[in-house]
């Protein structure tokens, strides 16, 4: 027999396990906030834009279609050269960095746009000033390396990075992390609530008897034990008072 669940049963399950859902969700948000603010190291990035533009001594047809297309193709080549150890090792020596070329490469990101002569170089470190020093150092070393290797002077640094524009951390994102933790915690808590409800096979109501045993309920006896005991204690208390008022002696046992 195929079992179905109604919206009413879903809401009843959620209402029944609301304390569990709230607790797990709150714990997920709290853990995310603690990790974000106290355990994760803030990351800062700095970016500089580099222009690839063929020089022309006669200054004729400087912006011809062929020249622009050549520059666009060179952008892809230069984005590979900028991560070459010959460039990165120069930066490491000049800035006295305690890292390898591969480690420095992991801090750099090169972003290119289609059919554009400009690409963006970004460095991400634990310090805004360090990010600025690295990205500007790599850009200058790259420009010098291109002139040396390719014997051309077609690289210009459009906008060097500065500390003012890199003062805000890019990682972690507290709002995003807490929002993700809230959603994940809510989903997990709701899943646990339905799992516990599914595993709970005890019979609690008349409806459970009809659904599980498939038998009609002829009648139900309400629980009245506590009520009867309360009435008995009240009656005994009143009788004791009457005995005292009548002058009878009551002995405590």
If you had to describe this structure to a student in words, what would you say it looks like?
This protein has 253 residues and is an alpha+beta fold. Among the domains are: 44-166, Bacterial polysaccharide co-polymerase-like; 206-245, no CATH class. Helix content is 57%, strand content 11%. The chain contains 9 helices and 4 strands, in the order H-H-E-H-H-H-E-E-H-E-H-H-H. It has helices at 7-16, 18-39, 65-81, 85-95, 101-107, 128-150, 174-199, 206-212, 225-245, and strands spanning 44-52, 108-112, 118-125, 155-159. Strands 2-3-1-4 form a 4-stranded antiparallel beta sheet. A hairpin with a 5-residue loop joins strand 2 and strand 3 (118-125). The longest helix is centred in the last third of the chain and has 26 residues, at 174-199. It is elongated, with a radius of gyration of 38 Å.
Order of helices and strands: HHEHHHEEHEHHH
CATH fold name of the domain at 44-166, please? Bacterial polysaccharide co-polymerase-like
Mean pLDDT: 81
CATH architecture field of the domain at 44-166 = 2-Layer Sandwich
Number of strands: 4
Q: Proportion of β residues?
A: 5-15%
Rg from C-alpha positions? 38 Å
């Amino acid at each position: 027999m195929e079992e179905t669940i109604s919206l009413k049963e879903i809401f009843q399950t959620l209402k029944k396990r609301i304390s569990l859902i709230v607790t797990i969700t709150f714990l997920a948000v709290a853990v995310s906030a603690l990790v974000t603010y106290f355990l994760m190291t803030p990351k800062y990035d700095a970016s500089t834009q580099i222009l690839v533009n063929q020089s022309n001594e006669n200054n004729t047809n400087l912006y011809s279609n062929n020249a622009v297309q050549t520059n666009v193709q060179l952008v892809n080549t230069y984005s590979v050269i900028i991560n070459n150890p010959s460039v990165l090792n120069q930066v490491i020596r000049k800035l006295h960095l305690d890292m390898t070329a591969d480690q420095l490469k992991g801090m750099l990101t090169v972003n290119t746009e289609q059919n554009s002569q400009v690409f963006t170089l970004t460095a991400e470190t634990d310090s805004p000033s360090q990010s600025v020093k690295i990205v500007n150092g790599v850009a200058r070393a790259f420009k010098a390396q291109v002139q040396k290797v390719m014997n051309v002077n077609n690289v210009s640094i459009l906008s060097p990075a500065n500390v003012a524009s890199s003062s805000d951390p890019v990682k972690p994102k507290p709002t995003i992390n807490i929002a993700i933790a809230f959603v994940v915690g809510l989903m997990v808590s709701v899943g646990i609530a339905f799992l516990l409800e599914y595993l709970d096979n005890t019979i609690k109501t008349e409806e459970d008897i009809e659904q599980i045993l498939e038998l009609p309920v002829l009648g139900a006896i309400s629980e009245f034990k506590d009520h009867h005991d309360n009435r008995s204690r009240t009656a005994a208390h009143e009788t004791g008072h009457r005995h005292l008022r009548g002058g009878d002696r009551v002995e405590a046992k």
